[in-house]
Amino acid sequence: MLRKAGSNWVEGDRFFDREVELEALDERVRDGVHTLLTAQRRMGKTSLVRELLRRLAVTNEFETVFVDLESASTAADAVVEMVLQVREKQAAWAKIKGTFANVLREANERIEELSLADARVRLRAGTDAGNWRQRGDDVLASLATSERTLVLVIDELPILVSRLLKGDAGPAITPAGRRAADEFLSWLRKSGQSHRGRLVLILSGSVGLEPLLEQAGLSAHANIFSSYDLKPWTEETAAACLAELAVAYEVNLPLEVRHAMCRRLRCCIPHHVQMFFDKLHEQLRREGRSAAGVADVDRVYREEMLAVRGQVDLQHYQDRLQLVLGRRGYLIALDILTAAAVGGGTVGMDRIRDYRAYCSSVAEDGDTGLPSFDDILHVLTHDGYFERRDSDYRFVSGLLEDWWRSRYGEHFRSITERLPLDGGVKR
User: Hey, what's the torsion of the CAs at 132, 134, 136, 142, to 10 degrees?
Assistant: First the structure.
């Protein structure tokens, strides 16, 4: 039976639907196509690629490695994380462990016998800015000689790229940061080209890679990757998921109730669908009931999904925006999102012109920590907060719109109202 997923990625029996997407990605892997998996947050990208790797491993046709770079800050960190994941694959590890033997020789240790934390420390001590590229080349070259094609999934690459670009100095992209990101992305791009046919790369992340590359003028590094956009569930699919969850947890959830939940969300992001069911289930359990009605949907949405407790699950959206845009850009994005939320879900072109004028005036005052307004708007649309309709921008998700309004809308005053006047007209 389908079970609650919480905030974690899922695979196997906990994985629901996405058969069309799995078939498409499987076809890309077999055709040797490098893929950039894009989607707004909480769409299930990590679950999708992990389930893909699980199914590919069952066929025994491919070597599969999943590397999470969320904790990586440098190119050397990225190579070490790759090695640590390969260590778990016995056949693959046998091919590359000699590359790192000297790192462990002085301590007379075998990396297979070390804990993950200790292995990370030892490997990181022997991998630095001077040798990470060579070590990475050795690892991928060794793996590419396998009888089976290597499918390498690199998750949270955009987080690493953002850290490389901006370092610890602040929100702005630095010249040194751009060089570091350029070097790492050049290496990754060259690796994908050099081992084509033996190595298939899949990149994903909780923030968009393309807006980051565009800000840094490094978009050419993405040209070996074919984008695949992971869409929200349809209302029918989301309702089917809710029906399976209801059976698993013995909840009476009629069709009209399931559709009422989907209409509240408006955009059926898998995590939000599961979160809604979880909160509804807990409410029924507290009241000693097993049957839900439409009135329960409205009450749980208002009192739980939008309450302070419910907002903890959505705080990650803000954290990721700040990571990509920096503190100053994040504040502008927050202002735009709140303006749209209190304006019926839409921000029009008059308001857009005011924001563009505000950002231009700040730039004229020498503030280098603020991305261009077009970059901010690109992030908001690329990462799924907004969609463009005619000349306006509108929230995609009803949940995010209502959440932003409940959190920030009560005393909202846009920063564009502080624009100086020139002849009675805002600059």
Answer: -160
